[in-house]
TrEMBL record:
Residues 289-457 form the Acyl-CoA oxidase C-alpha1 domain. Residues 508-678 form the Acyl-CoA oxidase C-terminal domain. GO terms for molecular function: acyl-CoA oxidase activity; FAD binding; fatty acid binding. This is Acyl-coenzyme A oxidase. Its cofactor is FAD. FAD binds at residues 152, 191. The keyword 4Fe-4S does not apply. Belongs to the acyl-CoA oxidase family. It is found in: Peroxisome. The active site is at 443 (proton acceptor). One of its GO terms (biological process) is fatty acid beta-oxidation using acyl-CoA oxidase.
């Protein structure tokens, strides 16, 4: 890209250089970074990652150096070129689905085809019949048709049952008629709908024989495949500028009595009979949750990677950035010069950033576990066993809410921790934060989703209370269900107290799980009592319900982190876990990270632990002492822990988070390329011109 300002070549940053500072940080690590990277990703995935990264970095169409200077129209055009190029590269290099996802993650820009991949294809795959897959899925995979997913309406989002768009069966022609009865029924926010998609999954109320059967998915062709113009009866447009995601054409759509074949209703689980319009309901009313569970499991996993990205930028920059001199512990160069202290050496900065590192690892490991559980559900459901669905739906609902909320808050915390430079686009935070933010709303508003989790927990708690065989039946299941285990433990002695007598006792994983389990069970028991015995309304309990879902899901995160670090039988360990468990140094550092996550999260929610009576004020003082000790343990490994996530500069696109530490050189180089620097202004207030005729020569 063109530079408009020539920077004097003799100027360099003051000593010590950023690259030297990061090299010092990496030399302090007590573990092998490459070994931890392998434990996170596995050798095969890491090899594919590196191979694909090399292809993308060398492709001029996928160059990112200009994106911080682009307006919305330019960004959208870039994103469309990018999406097309990735599809072309996938065909050239014969990438499979996983490799395509790696490429998309590295390019890191939601584009016009993103929803085609993330929602359109999975919905047909999960809810279409074999015949429908042949007609719609196969050409969609070949990108002969491009799809989107139209569920949200102008007047309805989270309340899917309140959607107004109708799909009425017409027996005389064996068709459905899709119609927008009110302005509030306009489909809104659908990614790729505005300018790109020619097909859509449309969620509409199924009406047959005068009966409303609620929302069902229908495949609707919305644009002509030759002219790309909207088909008759369909009005489509882009919804306009947004807070973020301006590389995607989110759209609106209205239908005026549009007919589609009966075949186009996705009918794997429910059907309408030809001619009679008889409705055949699904064997399990929650089967349609499958797509939502899949997408939420992806959001959970991606939250861990988003946190890793934010931590990588802010930790590396804090190691390079120096401010003030710590007179009690000054930094002295080999020549005897006293220099300013690295920001990362200040305990307040550690308290702000190290918990984000811990969150990244905790959520990453839970994301893996949830993904594997979803795969297990898909395998079982293919044989007619849907027993995992209720628990999986409840878990992914609460975890999606919790983890995406943690990520949004922590990305902003990391940006602020970078000081003034964090406000620059060059930090790598602004578009990253803007584009991540919708995760708290789509696929279920984060506050509303917690009700799904709480309902499941209340039902489980009531089953335990009312079971005549409580001590036998549920104790047998306790090893398989952490939820039932902590409820049983609470019910065995509701007045039990925490056994901690010294700060180091908080490092005991059994103590951590007991504390988290008691708090969750206490909140559940109290809420059930309020609803069942004191007849509190559901609406009056919503604040408490949100707390319960958060408490339960925090328990899951802590439980899964501890489980990941515990010894397993060799048969049950995959390659990644075998690397972890064969390395004492990895287990040691990750145990410190696990402790910090459990204890810092506990401190952030301390009032609930104290309110339950399980934890005492004296123990809360010990908790803070141990948190400080955990920060000290992590300090020498901070940079190495973020390096282990192996997030390349191509992905970060950050001057502050560069692997080589050349922060200041990059900041001024990128500033010199700002196109505004190439324009000569006419600043005469009485002139109608904004710019002079002459333009600065490009360097």
């Amino acid at each position: 890209m063109t530079s408009y300002i020539k920077i004097p070549s003799h100027l360099t940053p003051s000593d010590p250089q950023g690259s030297e500072l990061l090299a010092r940080e990496r030399s302090k690590a007590t573990f092998d970074v490459n070994e931890l990277t392998l434990a996170l990703y596995g050798a095969e995935e890491l090899s594919r990652f590196k191979r694909i990264l090399k292809i993308l970095e060398s492709d001029p169409i996928l160059d990112k150096s200009n994106i911080y200077y682009m307006g919305r129209t330019e960004l959208f055009k870039y994103a469309l070129r990018k999406d097309k190029r990735i599809i072309q590269l996938a065909a050239t290099h014969k990438w499979n689905v996983d490799e395509f996802k790696i490429a998309s993650r590295l390019v890191d820009m939601s584009g016009p085809y993103s929803i085609h991949q993330s929602m359109f294809l999975p919905t047909i795959l999960g809810q279409g019949t074999e015949e429908q897959k042949r007609k719609f899925l196969n050409p969609a995979i070949r990108h002969e048709i491009i799809g989107c997913y139209a569920q949200t309406e102008l007047g309805h989002g989270s309340n899917v049952q309140g959607l107004e768009t109708t799909s009425t069966y017409i027996p005389e022609t064996d068709e459905f008629e899709i119609h927008t009865p009110h302005l509030t029924a306009a489909k809104w926010w659908a990614g790729g709908l505005g300018r790109t998609a020619n097909h859509s999954v449309v969620m509409a109320r199924l009406i047959t024989n005068g009966q409303d059967k609620g929302p069902h998915p229908f495949i609707v062709q919305i644009r002509d495949l030759t002219t790309h113009e909207p088909l008759p009866g369909i009005t489509i447009g882009d919804i306009g500028p947004k807070f973020g995601f301006n590389t995607t054409d989110n759209g609106f759509m209205l239908f005026d009595h549009v007919r589609i074949p009966r075949f186009n209703m996705l009918s794997k689980f429910s059907q309408v009979t030809k001619g009679t319009g008889e409705y055949k309901k699904p064997p399990n009313e929650k089967l349609s949750y499958g797509t939502m569970v899949f997408v939420r499991s992806v959001i959970i996993f991606n939250a861990g990677l988003a946190l890793a990205r934010a931590a990588t930028i802010s930790v590396r920059y804090s190691a390079v950035r120096r401010q003030f001199v710590d007179k009690e512990n000054p930094m002295i160069l080999p020549n005897g010069q006293v220099v300013e202290t690295a920001v990362l050496d200040y305990t307040m900065q550690q308290y702000r950033l190290f918990p984000v590192i811990a969150q990244a690892y905790a959520i990453y490991f839970t994301g893996e576990i949830i993904t594997n559980l979803y795969k297990q559900y898909i395998d079982q459901s293919s044989r007619g066993d849907f027993s995992l669905l209720a628990d999986l739906h409840a878990s992914t609902s609460g975890l999606k809410s919790l983890t995406s909320g943690i990520a949004v808050d922590s990305i902003e915390d990391c940006r602020r921790a970078c000081g003034g430079h964090g406000y620059s686009n060059f930090s790598g935070f602004t578009r990253f934060y803007q584009d991540y933010l919708p995760n708290t709303t789509w696929e279920g508003d984060n506050y509303i989703l917690t009700q799904q989790t709480a309902r499941y927990l209340f039902k489980t708690y009531r089953e335990i209370i009312h079971s005549k065989q409580q001590s036998e039946e549920f104790s047998l299941r306790s090893n398989e269900s952490p939820t039932i285990f902590y409820m049983l433990r609470y019910l065995s002695n509701p007045s039990q107290k925490c056994t901690v007598i010294s700060p180091s006792d908080f490092k005991n994983p059994e103590v951590q799980l007991a504390i988290y389990g008691y708090r969750a069970a206490y909140l559940i028991a109290r809420a059930v009592d309020q609803i069942d015995n004191h007849k509190k309304s559901w609406n009056s309990m919503l604040v408490e319900i949100n707390r319960i879902s958060r408490a339960h899901c925090q328990y899951i995160l802590v439980h899964n982190f501890i489980l990941t670090l515990q010894p397993q039988t060799s048969d049950s360990m995959n390659e990644k876990r075998r690397i972890l468990h064969n390395s004492p140094s990895l287990k040691t550092v990750l145990t410190s990270v696990c402790n910090l996550f459990a204890l810092h999260t506990m401190e952030k929610n301390l009032s609930e632990f104290l309110e339950s009576g399980y934890l005492s004020p004296k123990q809360s003082e010990m908790l803070r002492v141990q948190i400080s000790e955990s920060l000290n343990e992590i300090r020498p490994n901070a940079v190495a822990l973020v390096d282990a996530f192996y997030l390349p500069d191509y992905l970060l696109n950050s001057a502050l988070g560069r692997y080589d530490g050349k922060v200041y050189e990059t900041m001024i180089e990128w500033a010199s390329k700002e196109p505004l620097n190439g324009i000569t202004l006419d600043i005469n207030p009485y002139s109608e011109k904004l710019f002079r005729n002459d333009v600065k020569a490009k360097i």
